[in-house]
Specification:
Elements: H1 18-24, H2 29-32, E1 36-39, H3 47-53, E2 57-62, H4 69-89, H5 102-122, E3 127-129, E4 142-148, H6 160-173, E5 174-181, H7 194-203, E6 207-212, E7 223-228
Helix pairs in contact: 3-5, 4-5
Length: 229
């Protein structure tokens, strides 16, 4: 899969840190206390691991979790090396403000992978294998669902119907709201069917907001979608 930005020939097992999630979704720890939260898909993100350390009730799900945690940790190390080389080659596609440079980015990604791998070993029940657009959860099982760097990001690979079906399923499993980040594809362009999807959601009676957030690494990836049930 060749794109003008980061050249992703495969879906890599790397992830973001808890603090990145807090910033990209404009969330505070206090907002999430007492709520059941789902990270979907979570990959190698440390949101679940660190969130639980902070007393939050967080569950992660991802298709990658069908594989053993040890194998994923090793794959993550190799994928991280590959991703950092790709970022270095395409630095113009990124905004180095949250991260000082590629080395700083690598440190964040390594920390996320390490925390995730440790928590997967310690709390395997919190890492649920799923194959979207279906989820093995009950209706309204989670108060808040967060979805980062999947929907819209892979707009060239996942068609509009997949997006509609996945968002419908996320809403089924959500009691209060879902938040999706970012709203651009791998080239940094606004997802081509985004306005249609927003209109579809509003017709179903949902309140939809596009919110600018204090986080931008991929150029133009600085807004999230908040959908209230």
């Amino acid at each position: 899969m060749q794109k003008a930005g980061l050249d992703l020939e495969r879906i890599v097992f790397i992830g973001r840190t808890f603090e990145e999630y807090r910033t990209m979704f404009s969330l505070s720890v206090d907002e999430l206390k007492g709520k059941k939260v789902l990270d979907c898909p979570a990959g190698a993100c440390s949101f679940t691991a660190v969130g639980r350390e902070k007393g939050l009730d967080v569950t992660a799900c991802d298709i990658a979790y069908y594989h053993p945690g040890e194998a994923l940790a090793e794959k993550g190390k190799k994928d991280l090396e590959h991703a950092m080389v790709s970022v270095e080659k395409a630095k113009a596609q990124y905004v180095f403000e949250y991260f000082h440079d590629v080395a700083d980015l690598a440190q964040h990604r390594t920390r996320a992978l390490t925390n995730c791998a440790k928590d997967m070993k310690k709390n395997p029940d919190r890492y649920v294998p799923v194959t979207l657009p279906k989820l093995p959860f009950e209706d309204g099982q989670f108060d808040v669902i967060l979805s980062a760097h999947f929907l819209f990001t892979y707009g060239g690979r996942l068609d509009k119907q997949f997006h509609l079906d996945t968002i419908k399923e996320l809403l089924r499993a959500a009691k209060e709201e879902i938040r999706i980040f970012p709203l651009v594809d791998l080239s940094g362009n606004r997802y081509e069917h985004l306005d249609e999807i927003i209109e579809n959601l509003k017709e179903q009676g949902h309140q939809v907001e596009e919110i600018r957030v204090p986080y931008e690494f991929q150029r133009n990836a600085n807004t999230m979608m908040k959908i209230l049930k």
